[in-house]
Amino acid sequence: MSSTAASRYQGTLPTTWLSERMGVDPARIDAMRRAGELIAVREPGSTEWRYPAWQFAAGEPRPGVARVVATAREWGIDEARLYDVLTSPLGLRDTGRRLADLLVEGREDEVVAAVRAAAQV
C-alpha cells in the first residue's frame, strides 16, 4: 500500500488481518461488506478492501454499522464518501470529534441523520 493510502485511510485494517483476528474466513468478511454489515474503503485501482477499526467492538461489528451503511446506500453515498463523512471533524466546538466517535458511543440515530444530511449537500 502506498504512503498516500496509509495516510488517507488511517486506522483501517486489511481483510487478512481481520480474518486472522476474528477467526473468520476472508470470504465471509467480504460477504459481510457486500451485505452492508461492514464499512470498507479502498484506493482507486486497488483490490484490497480496508476496514475502519472503530466499527468493531470485541471482534464484532458495532451496533448501528449496518444501519449507517444502509442509509448511505439508500442516499447514494459510496464507500469513500461515507468514510469521509464519518471521519471528518464535526466542527470547532467538538475538538476534533467525528461521526465515527458518535457511532462508537452508540449514538447511531445522530450518525444516521448526519449521513442523510451529507447526501443532500
Describe this structure as you would to a colleague.
With 121 residues, the chain is mostly helical. Helices cover 50% and strands 8% of the residues. The chain has 7 helices and 4 strands, in the order H-E-H-H-E-E-E-H-H-H-H. The chain has helices spanning 3-8, 15-22, 26-34, 65-74, 79-87, 99-104, 108-119; strands at 12-14, 50-52, 56-57, 60-61. The strands form 2 sheets. A two-stranded antiparallel sheet has the order 1-2. A two-stranded antiparallel ribbon has the order 3-4. The longest helix has 12 residues, at 108-119. It is globular.
Average pLDDT, to the nearest integer?
89
Largest sheet: 2 strands, antiparallel
Proportion of residues in β-strands: 5-15%
Overall spatial form: globular
In spatial order, strands of the major sheet run 1-2
Number of discrete helical segments: 7
What's a quick, concise take on this entry?
With 121 residues, the protein is mainly alpha-helical. The chain contains 7 helices and 4 strands. It is 50% helix and 8% strand.
Q: What is the topology?
A:
Blueprint: H1 3-8, E1 12-14, H2 15-22, H3 26-34, E2 50-52, E3 56-57, E4 60-61, H4 65-74, H5 79-87, H6 99-104, H7 108-119
